[in-house]
Amino acid sequence: MKLSKFLVPTLKENPADAEVISHKLMVRAGMIRKLTAGIYSYLPLGYRSLRKVEQICREEMDAAGAQEVYLPVAQPSELWKESGRWEIYGKELLRFKDRHDRECCLGPTHEEVITDLVRREVRSYRDLPLNLYQIQTKFRDEIRPRFGLMRGREFIMKDGYSFDTTEDMAEKTYIEMRDAYQKIFTRCGLEFRAVEADSGPIGGSFSHEFMVLAATGEDTIVSCDSCDYAANMEKAEIRTEEFSFPVSEGSPEAVSTPGASTVEEVAKFLGLKAENIIKTLILKTENGAIAVLLRGDHELNEVKVKNFLKVSDIVMANADTIEEVTGGPMGFSGPVGLSNIPVLADRAIFGVESAVVGGNRHETHLINVDPRRHFKVDQSGDFRAATAGDLCPRCSGTLRLSRGIEVGHIFKLGDKYSKAMNASFLDPDGKEQFMIMGCYGIGVSRVLAAAIEQNHDDDGIIFPPPIAPFTVMITPVGAKSETINEVAGRIYEDLWSSGIDALLDDRDERPGVKFKDADLLGIPFRITIGQKALAQGNVELRNRRTKETILVKPEDVIPEVRKLTEKWAQRA
Ligand code: ATP
Ligand code: MG
Q1: Which residue range is the domain that position 330 belongs to?
Q2: What integer pLDDT is reported at residue 247 of this predicted model?
């Protein structure tokens, strides 16, 4: 490819709407252009990289025994009604009507379509297992599309679905997919971590997210500093220490707390720390109101409560509900005497000696409260968000927090969809059974953004060679000379015929402009052909990452590039 004829509209300025570096650099390097919010066109350079990520996914999925299919983007509502998701999916699902007034949607994911396909084609256990995947455009009408390709409305996903005859087989497939994902992200050159993710009511350790470690990540990862435990914040468990302190003699005493209702205000007013307070959250689920007690300095983890209660919806109760269930105004709820709704307590509250709680009365709190004696708790458990310094649930280490970008998600679905949509097979005894499913997603376009988020410097992108749009950039510089052009052209031909993709900067530009653009585009290796070195029979080979330049003979370019690529792969 020759740069003079290639559509690479580089920009000097960052786009005004870009907040993260990958978005800025992809626009500046002429890889993508925005059409409208969350919807992007891939220009030749961006699309070359994207296809490399796709190809790595494809090769590893094929190697793991999965088969590639291509499913429709437009889907009829009937299938979504069968699975029950037409009602619950919400506004991310882009719905529309066709000319016959039939309801349709654009696929945000393909469980329904694939389950429909497989239930029609598979009859017997002999046809299973099946593992099918596709690489395709997804549409999700995200409420806040942002960060360029990171959170788009239209994006490219590799999604795969497995169908097994037994739970054991499904677990084996799950582990094979987890291994395949490790290989994919390693090959893409990413620094990542597989973390336990919330698997909703299915429970167990059958959902993992693959997180690219980056400060700009939208997810919080909780990991242990001494063992390999790592989980998404939503899922992260906490080991609670055993508490023991003498049972208090006194009884609760009401104190007036004018103008103080939040934990911070009450702590300040009473001259205490937030951890001396037990806060009472009144929440509403589809099954009614509940109270959750937390230590003042702790935060609620909604997902834990949802899974514990097996409910799908949790919101903060409004003032009317609070008044109704506690008899007091919002901001002063407390557990003492609270008997008409279920009370859940996070275990850490039992470590609060002589606690302060809300008094269920205007501007009133209770002091000297013993959490073991002075109020009723229906159930206690782990309901709070992990914080740095909490105890690891698996070992004696402590937990720390970091940020990550979710690039992949694998999930054991069980018979959720096969049951709802009647995807069954006949087992060896002729008995009808539901297939056991798993689903496996990779945000292919997000991988590209995440890779740049992790690999860049002040001058631009530093592509990992396996996903770089080109492996080598050839930059002839200096006065127009026949020899320089001839050597550049020969190296270009040689690289391509050895299977190394090269971009030739044949533009009539000053060396400074060419070098700047080369750095911005992030092509891993640059060959500079200039008068001075060439007079000695050499060209320069520069490593974008290390900025090291070596002199090589034109005929040694190919083995030298191979050596550098090999070195990169070994992270040497
Ligand atoms: P998120 O929590 O980031 O919204 P998700 O849990 O909705 O992701 P999945 O449904 O598991 O994501 O989709 C599989 C993969 O698709 C994700 O791991 C992610 O890499 C990618 N993905 C999801 N939503 C988007 C999006 N809006 N833009 C780009 N990639 C996305
Ligand atoms: Mg999402």
Answers
A1: 253-381
A2: 78
Judge residue 113's burial from the number of C-beta atoms within 10 Å of its C-beta, 0-12 exposed, 13-18 middle, 19 or more buried: buried
Instruction: Output the CA angle 296-301-304, nearest 5 degrees.
Output: 130
Residues 442 and 496 occupy one common structural domain: no
Q: Which residue, judged by its Cα, is nearest atom 27 of ligand 1? A: 151
Q: How far is the CA of 74 from the centre of ligand 1 (A)?
A: 19
Cβ(458)–Cβ(510) under 8 Å?
no
Centroid of ligand 2 to alpha carbon of 26 (angstroms)? 22
In this predicted model, what pLDDT tens digit does every residue of 456-493 receive, in sequence order? 999 999 999 999 999 999 999 987 788 999 999 999 99
Mean pLDDT of the chain: 95
Q: What would you measure as the largest C-alpha separation in the chain, in angstroms?
A: 97
Question: Measuring CA to CA, how many Å separate 285 from each of 281, 377, 487?
Answer: 13, 18, 72
Q: What is the pLDDT of residues 413-445, one digit of tens each?
A: 999 999 999 999 999 999 999 999 999 999 999
Burial (CB < 10 A; 0-12, 13-18, 19+), residue 431, is exposed
**Closest ligand 1 atom, CA of 442?**
15
Ligand 1: residue of 157, 209, 233 to mutate (most ligand atoms within 8 A of CB) is 157
Quick check: CB of 151 below 6 Å from ligand 1?
Answer: yes
Within a domain: 18: no
Is residue 68 one of the residues assigned to a domain? yes
Query: Is 392 part of a structural domain of the chain?
Result: no
CA dihedral sign, ordered 328, 334, 338, 343: positive
* 195, 466 Cβ separation under 8 angstroms: no
Question: CATH code at 485?
Answer: 3.40.50.800
166 CA distance to ligand 2 centroid (A)?
29
CA distance 213 to 407: 10
Our CA dihedral for 477, 481, 487, 491, rounded to 10 degrees, sits at 40
Nearest CA to ligand 1 atom 29: 151
Phi, psi at 322, each rounded to 5°: -60, -45
CB contact set of 279 (below 8 Å; sequence gap of 6+): 263, 293, 294, 295, 296, 357, 358
Amino acid code (one letter) for 349? I
Give the contacts of 547 (CB within 8 A, at least 6 positions apart).
none
Q: Please write the tens of the pLDDT for every residue from 310-349.
A: 998 899 999 999 999 999 999 999 999 999 999 999 999 9
Torsion of CA 226, 228, 232, 237, to 10 degrees: -60
The ligand 1 atom at the shortest distance from the C-alpha of residue 407 is: 20
Size (the chain), residues: 572
**Count of the separate structural domains present in the chain:** 3
User: Do 53 and 198 sit in the same domain of this protein?
Assistant: yes
Write the burial class of residue 287 (CB in 10 Å: 0-12 exposed, 13-18 middle, 19+ buried): exposed
Q: Which of 468, 446, 464 lies closest to 49, judged by CA?
A: 468
Q: Are residues 205 and 332 in the same domain?
A: no
Question: Contact 113/70 with Cβ under 8 angstroms?
Answer: no
pTM summary value = 0.90
Contact 56, 185 (CB under 8 A): no
393 lines ligand 1 (CB under 6 A): no
